[in-house]
Amino acid sequence: MPDRDIKSPIWHPETVEDVFDHTYKEKEGPKPPTVIVWRNVLLMAFLHTGALYGLVLFPSASVLTWIWFLACFVFSALGVTAGAHRLWSRRSYKASLPLRIFLAFANSMGFQNDIYEWSRDHRVHHKYSETDADPHNAVRGFFFSHIGWLLVRKHPDVIEKGRKLELSDLKADKVVMFQRRFYKSSVLLMCFFVPTFVPWYVWGESLWVAYFVPAVLRYALVLNATWLVNSAAHMWGNRPYDSSINPRENRFVAFSAIGEGFHNYHHTFPFDYATSEFGCKLNLTTCFIDLMCFLGLAREPKRVSREAALARAQRTGDGSHRTG
């Protein structure tokens, strides 16, 4: 599959607006008070308690339920990685209508806010990374960047900068706006009903196990795998492409988040569809997009050349780059 060689992807005309803004300055003086959203705290507590119970039930599930659990995990993760992230947030490739519908359903199973809101927050994250305007600012610590940011009110700068972003491409996508309109219903259907109903109805799994394993436990694991990109991949690992930024190359996160852990590369070349110099290596999402291109359901993947990545590593990396 041919790659598009973009030596300076940050200058691409349709994406220049939402790359890192060096002109942003945090406001001087005391920070705004932290306001806890207790509803979210309780919901997350219930979810993770249910997930722990699902872990206890996991050995009692049938082999078919284990397979279904894994299938739901990958499907819902792709809705975030290949869908909300690489397609709609980063615009790193183009997808046909059937693929966009498929990814929208997968995204609803992932239940991490609708595509429009997820993409808006992710663009703010890239544009103002590690500042007060970053929704999950890793400078505020592991807990905040992992889950804490969802348990408190957003910093005023996050809201302000999010409102100023150009999001016309998302608003023009009928699949994105349809999912946003019916998001709650789609989440009930895809995140909870379908994962529970199929094993119970098709092969007679216990309804109790079917709910707590492929629905609740799977959902919590996908959430935490995604959150590790915001937390662990901003704290632990090497920085071979740009040592001046926090995001790191973290292979454990890349494995758990099906390819999203090569974060120093991703923040250096944010519009590369593979988010990694090494293509499909530990990167199931890239393999999926390659397959969709082969089948004619996706096209025009943006790719940074190996030479450009190596040159950037030699110029700004921490010396840890490997050529193999």
Helices and strands in order:
Blueprint: E1 4-5, H1 38-57, H2 63-89, E2 94-95, H3 97-110, H4 115-127, H5 142-146, H6 156-164, H7 168-172, H8 174-181, H9 183-202, H10 207-230, H11 251-256, H12 263-268, H13 284-294, E3 298-299, E4 302-303, H14 306-316
Parallel strand pairs: 1-4
Antiparallel strand pairs: 2-3
Subcellular location: Endoplasmic reticulum membrane
Pfam family, one: FA_desaturase
GO cellular component, one term: endoplasmic reticulum membrane
Notes on the protein architecture:
- The chain has one domain (34-316).
- It has 14 helices and four strands.
- It has a two-stranded parallel ribbon.
- Helix content is 55%, strand content 2%.
- α2 crosses α3.
- The chain has 324 residues and is mainly alpha-helical.
Q: How would you sum up this structure in a few lines?
A:
The chain has 324 residues and is an all-alpha fold. It contains 14 helices and four strands.
